[in-house]
Amino acid sequence: MATTPDRSATDPYAATLLAENDLLAAALRTADPELPVPTCPGWTLLQLLRHVGRGHRWAAQMVAAGATEALDPRAVAGGKPPEGGPEVAAQWLRDGATELLDAVAAAGARTPVWTFTGPQPSAWWVRRRLHEATVHRADVAVATGTPFPIDPSTAADGVSEWLGLLAARPAADAPPLRPGTTLHLHATDDGLGAAGEWTVREQDGRVAWEHGHAKGDAAVRGAAADLLQGITRRIPADDERLQVLGDADVWTTWLGRTGY
């Protein structure tokens, strides 16, 4: 009898990926698939669903193959939701996350695989796909005019994960922050501690960051959910849910040069 891979090997993000992906699937199941997504210009909700579901399988298939280079997304097996209506499409999205977790468990969470940031342990993809799901769930909320509830610790980790991806990018001629300037982000939720504060700076044309409280040229305060939406440009830079202190141009320049 075949054994089921131990998904617990991908903790601490496995259960959260399933939960967040389920919320995304549920939101898409009841929405008009042809509804435009303002925060993803040119997309409909159906295209968003395909993007996330294919992305889960894309990561899973690279993990399973021990890939040393990116898989062509057009070559992803099962990369389109099957016919059958919203229930079938929603289940296809859920199955993609399960496929990834099973692939990581079977390969070994520490087994290296290709990622955007160079070779990383295969479990790296679990966190990446978790936050892909959370940010695109915010897109669905914008498109449908519904709330975006998310656990503050998950949202705060999404901010950290996005900063980590930015820090891995090569040096730029026009970096997100001018030399010598700093940006401080501060989540106002109770209980986050140092995990809810970030100090970001320019370092040799690249992004560098660390947790902790510090005075910045600009500071942005808000709930972790709102900071996640702000830093990924899902809400405007001057949204009333965000309090911007200091030099607002630091914040707007940052956003203008950090496309998600």
UniProtKB/TrEMBL annotation:
It holds the Pfam family MDMPI_C. GO terms for molecular function: isomerase activity. Residues 154-251 form the MDMPI C-terminal domain. InterPro entries: DinB/YfiT-like (IPR034660), Maleyloyr_isom (IPR017517), MDMPI_C-term_domain (IPR010872), MDMPI_metal-binding (IPR024344). Keywords: Isomerase. Residues 17-141 form the Mycothiol-dependent maleylpyruvate isomerase metal-binding domain. SUPFAM superfamilies: DinB/YfiT-like putative metalloenzymes. The keyword Isomerase applies. This is Maleylpyruvate isomerase family mycothiol-dependent enzyme.
